[in-house]
Specification:
This protein is α+β, with helices and mostly antiparallel strands. The protein has 5 helices and 6 strands. Helix 4 crosses helix 5.
Length: about 180
């Protein structure tokens, strides 16, 4: 995918700003998500475009610290979060942890995407999308980078993404295969 195609998928013009991209993604995914009557293929294409645009506009991740913390710690923005996880069968553990958080509503092993639908503590049905992002070759191979996005699927506000990802990280930590 390239920037032009990603913008076109989200219905945006060349000069779209991050806020425009976020708004367009949220509006489209609410309509295209299978739980809202859409199709998995369309929802995946929208999510792929959104993630591509997010990654294209960011700097490479900082070099991880030599000693990883005993428990994964997320870093977050308003609508995205990154979690560095220990190596191993990360994808299978993401799926297992997703089942413990809520209902795994979409899996794409080739793209490294797991989407989980769950009801937040405030009663709002939300979708947490976890995407495994390949690490640059110069990065340490002792961690897997997983990016998260969180969107409400019903009226109301999603809880802060950092709280949801921290909860997911605790579940992930207890998960073993």
């Amino acid at each position: 995918m390239n920037r032009e195609r990603a913008l076109r998928t989200l219905g945006l013009e060349k000069g779209a700003q991050p806020d425009d991209i976020n708004r367009a993604y949220r509006a489209l995914i609410r309509q295209a998500h299978p739980d809202a009557g859409g199709t998995t293929a369309v929802a995946a294409r929208i999510t792929e475009a959104y993630h591509w645009l997010q990654r294209a506009g960011t700097e490479p991740p900082p070099t991880p610290k030599p000693a990883p913390p005993p428990q994964p710690t997320p870093s977050a923005t308003d609508d995205a979060s990154v979690l560095l996880l220990p190596p191993g069968d990360v994808f299978a553990r993401l799926v297992e942890a997703g089942h413990q958080l809520g209902e795994v509503s979409y899996i794409d092993h080739d793209a490294g995407i797991v989407q989980i639908t769950f009801t937040a503590h405030n009663g709002v049905v939300c979708q947490l999308a976890a995407t495994i992002v390949p690490m640059p070759s110069r990065a340490r191979q002792a961690e897997a980078r997983v990016e998260f996005t969180l969107d409400p699927l019903a009226s109301g506000e999603a809880p802060p993404i950092d709280q949801v990802v921290a909860r997911f990280a605790r579940i992930f930590q207890r998960t073993s295969l």
